[in-house]
Amino acid sequence: MKKLSLVASALLIIFSQSAKAELKISGYGSIIAGKTLGTVDDPLNPGQKRDEILTADFYDVGQYTNDLTFKAESILAVQGTYKFNSQLSVTAQLVAKGVDDFNPEFDWYYVTYQANEDWTFMAGRRNIPMYYFSEYAEVGYAYPWMRPPSNLYWWQVTQFDGAHAMYSFELGEYSNTITAFYGNEYSDDNVEMLYYDKLYGGNARTVNEYWTDIAGFNWNMSGDFFDLRFVYFQNDRDRETIQQDGSISPYTPFSQQFIGFGGQVNVSDFTILFDMNYVEYDDAVGTEFPTYLISVVYNIDEFQPYISYSKADHERSKVPTQDLEEHYMLSYGLRYDFYSNVAFKIQYDTFVDQGHEPTGWAYHGDSRTISMGIDFVF
Amino acid sequence: MLLPSPKKTWKVVCVVSTMALMNMSHAIADVAVVVHPTNDSSFDQGTIKKIFLGKTKSYTNGRSAILISANYSDPATEEFNSKVLGKSSSQVKAYWSKILFTGKGTPPQEMDSNAAVISSIASNPDAIGYLDASAVTGDVKVVATF
């Protein structure tokens, strides 16, 4: 909170000097409406029917049910960048989301120092560069779909306070950037974790989720027809589930490793987008999450029809278990760039839960969802 | 394994250059890439493409490039994006939005008119821009025409 007010006052000072050309204001947003189309047997309460539910935004628990809503994933963001000189700048993003009743929060704030053509350093609050689309997952205008497949972008932590060192270089004809990063995230009152506690019949007051010593790197390589990215990081995990009486539920900390390879390749009028990821815990059971995404987009003038398939699995290596959480999403949609900085999108999602019902791992349930709306930048 | 093999790359090059030729036959006018008259850096299509995609941040003279573009609805923008960058204007805009909102670069500044493109480049030794070739004046230096 103290940090937030510090940034806010720093920004106020900067904004008050907005007559200077060095301040650049830009922004992005999405106004999206959607609903699910039917009912399912509640996997956690056998014999009972409930609306199909699609969690479109896991981190904030933005969900679609049978009731049409604009709140699940509509978002408005304003970014201000103030350049002190050609090398040093500060950037902040004020983000308002429908799931938070559009209460604006400073989700991003960081300092950038461009030491020279090759080296750039950043420090502050940014998204964790996990998946290929993680860093701009909320900038709908930047990709063809309604959202990066939410059954992969499901983590309860997406941001962190940290430092980044970026080195850019040419390798033959290819442009490369290697980024090393380090940081921590103390996510007090974690929305997603509290949701799961309640989903499984808990009554916790709050859940605090801690990801510490997040350390890793990614390597981005791009040429005329492709853009590829490899990522590796590890971090320590801990959690405080605070009950109504103030007691804290026992939890065994562990560490996790994340490996990913993703990118996009352009072939004639088609763009192929893919991401393969593997997460491993060093916990007692050897938890593993192999996930992947493949999507094909057809570029025809201002239209981009697309199809995407994303699959997530959950296994245990130390006590071999196959039947845990498992699901895939098959999505079809169309992006239409009908104005210079506005795109219309419509998407149909089929979520198929292949998890193990008796043990409660099929907790998502199947769903069919239609969503449409606009993404814009300014 | 996802890197295209040389053979495939060649096929793609053929397809794309054929498409580029087809596009050219529809071209209304050429697009000129212009810089400040004092900018003595060297430019070829590859360099210009990398500069306008933010992959190269400096000129060969060592100074940081400041990018200027024509208006989104100006035919010169569509021409430049398809001929030089190989993308549609909306793809270019989407590309820059991911860079801008992750703090990894600044997109070209859009100018409302040819006169504004020329005056902003004439007044800044590090600026580079493009416009309809027929609108070029002596205040700026043409380094390439597409």
Task: Indicate the topology.
The complex is a heterodimer of chains A (378) and B (146).
Chain A: H1 2-16, E1 23-36, E2 39-41, E3 49-51, E4 54-57, E5 62-64, E6 75-83, E7 88-97, E8 105-114, E9 119-127, E10 159-171, E11 174-187, H2 191-199, E12 206-222, E13 226-242, E14 254-267, E15 270-281, E16 287-298, E17 303-313, E18 315-316, E19 326-339, E20 342-353, E21 367-377
Antiparallel strand pairs in A: 1-6, 1-21, 2-3, 4-5, 6-7, 7-8, 8-9, 9-10, 10-11, 11-12, 12-13, 13-14, 14-15, 15-16, 16-17, 16-18, 17-19, 19-20, 20-21
Chain B: H1 6-26, E1 31-35, H2 45-52, E2 66-69, H3 75-85, H4 89-100, E3 109-110, H5 114-122, E4 127-132, E5 141-145
Write a structural description.
- The complex is a heterodimer of chains A (378) and B (146).
- Chain A has one domain (2-377): Beta Barrel (Porin).
- In chain A, the strands form 3 sheets. Chain A has a 16-stranded antiparallel barrel. In chain A, strands 2-3 form a two-stranded antiparallel sheet.
- Chain A contains 2 helices and 21 strands.
- With 378 residues, chain A is mostly beta strands.
- In chain A, a hairpin with a 2-residue loop joins β14 and β15 (270-281).
- Chain B is an alpha/beta fold.
- Chain B has a single domain (29-145), classed as D-Maltodextrin-Binding Protein, domain 2 (3-Layer(aba) Sandwich), CATH 3.40.190.10.
- Chain B has 5 helices and 5 strands; from the N terminus they run αβαβααβαββ.
- Chain B has a 5-stranded mixed β-sheet, sandwiched between helices.
- At the A-B interface, β1, β6, β8, β9 and β14 of A face α1 and α4 of B.
